[in-house]
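Figure S7 source data.
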Amino acid sequence: MVERATACPALRHGQPGWQLDLPGGDGLWVALQGAQVLSWVAGGRERLYLSPRSPFDGKTAIRGGIPVCFPQFNLRGPLPKHGFARNLPWQPDAPPVLGAQEARLSLRLAASAATRTFWPPAFDARLTLLLEPGQLQITLEVNNTDAEPLSFTGALHTYLAVEDIAAVRLSGLAGQPEWDAVADRHGHAADALRFHDEFDRVYAAAARPLILQEPQGRLRIEQSPSFANTVVWNPGPDKCRTLADMPEQGYRQMLCVEAAQVMQPITLASGAHWQGWQRLSVS
Ligand code: TA6
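Tokens for the predicted 6-O-phosphono-beta-D-tagatofuranose complex:
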């Protein structure tokens, strides 16, 4: 057992990344590809779903963990689905900051020849991971380093690990405006969301925390008001069968709860800065 937080470069799934550990046993691993957290252990349990069928080839989107979707959400624009940030290598921005009970690591993706093939603007993005006992906060920052304004949408597309999706309830969204992307129907959120089939809905974000309730325990999910939406996604059995990078029964073990900006792009003037975060806490 370590006595102080530690951080070191570490390979997993054949991919380069960083491992952060706290004295009490909590830890995370983040891949350089996409600055994608692929494991977060808290309270002795893995809290993130990661598909065993992900290709791990250093460039194809990884199915699971916390994909950073930037600068486009889904297919709402001309870019590849969910943008390019999840396909490109990010780099540590500065040495990790380590305390007795916390570890912080920032990774950076700046405009390059690779990003300009998709998207012309100059930008500087940073993802900061703050690991504390029972808690993980993920903060995305975007700086417009271009002479012109830039606009983006996106998400922290978190895949939460669940024991059995049939036993999961997600509360905290009651009454929020809801767009059901499967039925293309607008309505309002039920008191507690249950998941029996394909579920793909975009909500106006709630000011209160969401609670993911399972027989094994609860997880509290918060997001900054700078993300206008929360997206909740589970492919259900039929859609899951069509996803080559998911096991047939994989949908049973995951639920995506995403801090997102879907409908209304964020526009940054030249030199302007934006940040948005999601915080996950074991309770
Ligand atoms: O956030 C939900 C969503 O946009 C769904 O519509 C679904 O397609 C999902 O993301 C996964 O997208 P991906 O490109 O990772 O397969």
